[in-house]
Amino acid sequence: MVIDDEKKLNDLLSRILSLEGYNVLQAYTAKEGMRILHQEQVALVISDVKLPDANGVELVKAIKQIKPFVEVINLTAYGTIADGVQAIQNGAFNYITKGDDNDKIIPLVSEAFSKAGKQIEAEKFKVKSRTGLIFDDIIGKSPAINSAITLARKVATTDTTVLLLGETGTGKEVFASAIHQASGRPSKSFVAINCSSFTGDLLESELFGYKAGAFTGALKDKKGLVEEANGGTLFLDEIGEVKPDMQARLLRLLENQSFIKLGSTETVKVNIRIIAATNRDLQKEADAGTFRMDLYYRLSVFSINLPPLRERKGDITALANYYLNLFSAKTGSQKMEIDKDFIQTLEQHPWKGNIRELKNVMERVMILADSDTLSTALLPPGFNTETTGNSNAIDLASVEKQHIKKILAYTGGNKTETARLLGIGLTTLYRKLDEYKLSE
């Protein structure tokens, strides 16, 4: 691409390069050039230093931030040593004076184009290899999960906004992280935020930061998570919980890659890839007017549905074994076997909490296991009755008491951790401790 506001010179240089066999794009301003750079596959930019809307030397830095493997040659009518040095420091391939004959321009373009091409191909190979390895780490071979993985592989190498859809606990953050790692931004930050964890005002300050004095208690400037993610990926979990006024700010971020901090009037530019996730039907909510239609369309450029665990029962054994090995290594336990009835019971369970629920179940049975085989007797109270319809109320109380005792022993008496592992509230735990006379 040639960027020069002098149309005759731009046309002449583009014509010369076209005759040499290059496919040439033309821009007459820095803004137009950056737009083309976002949309087209460009290997080399030849830019004038004096543009109507930018300094070509500084433009090198902006180009490198977006496309680090694109080479840039600066052209100037009045070259200075200082500008030349700065251009090279900013990442320019070379800095030359206009009017140099074609014998110098053409070989220089050839060298720069060759270097850019090799770098781009090398990066494509690395990304392709990295993408395969990363997505191979996602557990499961069922058609439902394979379909989601195939889509994620394809979109990972782009900067396209992705919307991950699925029930709670289906692994949306795992997919978001894998997409980031397989992208062209793996060395940059992956910043995740659960939008449902914050009120509207707090979410705004967490995402966009604020200037000192913006509100009571804002004693110094704070950098928001959007800035932290600059160059990398911002993962907005539970995006469906965001309030309408905040939706407008997110729309601006998506459209312009810019935002304004609380208490400031200055626009901050960023370069981020956004991945969002929700367990809601945003299409339905947008139709009903409870979610902005324009934001929905911007978020759902590329949607991926993650299947619930009940639709991928063939993956339950692999997932159970994965967590079995994970917790065995964590606790230093011996390697264990899983009996057939145990697996069958897991496969019959409805898994309303999906993979997260399975993980918690496997952690609990590992704590309770006294032998090298996991059996159905180790499953949480009520687990078997939910899947088989059998119930024995008298035995259930006894099992629950022993279960709580074992979890307490495992946590060293830590009530908060015990309640977490049991999946109950702390108040409920204390009530059961009194009921079973287990309180100290």
In short:
This protein folds into 3 domains: 122 residues, Rossmann fold, CATH 3.40.50.2300; 171 residues, Rossmann fold (3-Layer(aba) Sandwich); 126 residues, Helicase, Ruva Protein, domain 3, CATH 1.10.8. 51% of the residues lie in helices and 13% in strands.
Task: Please supply descriptive tags for the structure shown above.
single chain; 440 residues; alpha/beta; Rossmann fold; Helicase, Ruva Protein, domain 3; 3 domains; five-stranded parallel β-sheet; 19 helices; 16 strands; 51% helix; elongated
Write up this protein.
The chain folds into three domains: 122 residues, Response regulator (Rossmann fold, 3-Layer(aba) Sandwich); 171 residues, P-loop containing nucleotide triphosphate hydrolases (Rossmann fold), CATH 3.40.50.300; 126 residues, Helicase, Ruva Protein, domain 3 (Orthogonal Bundle). The chain is built from 19 helices and 16 strands. The strands form five sheets. It has a five-stranded parallel beta sheet, with helices on both faces. β11 and β12 form a beta hairpin. α2 runs parallel beside α3, α13 crosses α15 and α17 packs across α18. The radius of gyration is 29 Å and the shape is elongated.
